[in-house]
Amino acid sequence: MMGLYFDEIEPGRVDELGSYEFTREAVLKFARAYDPQAFHLSEEAAAKSHFGKLAASGWHTAAGWMRCYVETSMRLAGARPDPAESGPSPGFTQLKWIKPVHAGDTVSYRTTITGKREHAGKRDWGLVETYNEGHNQRGELVFSFNGKVLVRKR
Amino acid sequence: MMGLYFDEIEPGRVDELGSYEFTREAVLKFARAYDPQAFHLSEEAAAKSHFGKLAASGWHTAAGWMRCYVETSMRLAGARPDPAESGPSPGFTQLKWIKPVHAGDTVSYRTTITGKREHAGKRDWGLVETYNEGHNQRGELVFSFNGKVLVRKR
After folding, report:
1. Spatial contact of A34 and A57, defined as CB atoms under 8 Å apart
2. Of A52, A65, A100, B77, which is most buried by a Cβ count within 10 Å?
3. Mean residue pLDDT across chain B
4. CB-based contact A63 B34, cutoff 8 Å
């Protein structure tokens, strides 16, 4: 992650990942491809649903986090002469969709390193644990999850 | 979910959700929009990475599940005279990316109802818990998570 090596990772580190705008167009495009529930596809259906107005798919909120995470990582890695290779993620826990993200909202994402440890069976990689969150333009927490990613050792 | 009311949900129920083909085009399209890491964008970069060959973003594997889940739900709900309204998901736990999904793979998804319970503060909705999995065309488990979704009571 971020071009950092496992050895350099310090729990407590916080990185602001920038923001992603959930334009009406982006919300509809994601929903048509991956989550074609009526309330993600039209204002009319959304108005009649529990959402009240057009809302992004929860998986879109997650994909927006990934987009911001990757862009920030590529920028930080690009600024290093010897960036660490990005590793895969074995998965994550406790993903929460806390509030709807409506068309027109902008979500700012942040990642905090919460821990690091050896990973069974991997000698060249360590496991880094993170807490990730997204706040909308009103400062409301709308999304969070606890992530895990494998990071190269030097 | 599935047009079923909370009262009708029976733990143990298994639904096959059909499959999603991770064509090269679909892999690249998702990666460009949401996960532009080099190993998701070109065969050359993938060959030099831990993946070895072009692999779908893990979030794409999740979005493929959603696509299959929504299509199956719409079909089942459409076959009922009185389908229940779909509810939001508060989130999920233990999402696992178990094996890479490579360009050209087809993943078949399945959802199993593992439990149901009252949800604090919601009188008209109950919480349904699920175990969800995806297997590739060789029958290998590549993806799983424990989901939660709010379902309308009658």
Report:
1. yes
2. A65
3. 94
4. yes
- What is the Cα–Cα distance from A1 to B7, expressed in whole angstroms? 45
Report residue B152 CA to chain centroid gap.
21
B85 to chain A: which residues are within 8 Å by CB?
49-50
The residue with tokens 């600024």 is A79
What does the alpha-carbon distance between residue A132 and residue A112 come to, in Å, rounded to a whole number?
6
Full-prediction pTM beyond 0.90? Answer: yes
Report angle CA A58, A59, A65 to the nearest 5 degrees: 100
Q: Interface of chain B against chain A, CB under 8 Å?
A: 33-37, 39, 49-51, 57-59, 62-64, 66-67, 70-71, 74, 85-98, 100, 145
Q: Give me the pLDDT at residue B87, please.
A: 85
Give the long-range contacts of residues B43-46, CB within 8 A, separation 24 or more.
none
Mean predicted confidence (pLDDT) in A1-26: 94
How high is the pLDDT of residue A88?
86
Tell me, what's the pLDDT at A141? 98
Interchain proximity A86–B35, CB inside 8 Å: no
Contact A66 B74 (CB under 8 A): no
The chain-wide mean pLDDT, for chain A, equals 94
Give the β-pairing of B14-21 and A122-135. Answer: unpaired
Read off the pLDDT band of B121 (50, 70, 90).
confident
**pLDDT value, residue A61:** 98
Enumerate the domain spans of chain A: 6-152
B1 — pLDDT class (breaks 50, 70, 90): low
Kindly tell me if the per-residue pLDDT of A50 is higher than 90.
no
Least Cα separation, residue A39 to chain B (angstroms): 9
- In A13-123, which ranges are continuous DSSP H helix? 24-34, 38-41, 43-48, 58-78
Class of CATH domain B6-152: alpha beta
Please name which of B107, B101, B126, B104 lies closest in space to residue B69, comparing C-alpha atoms: B107
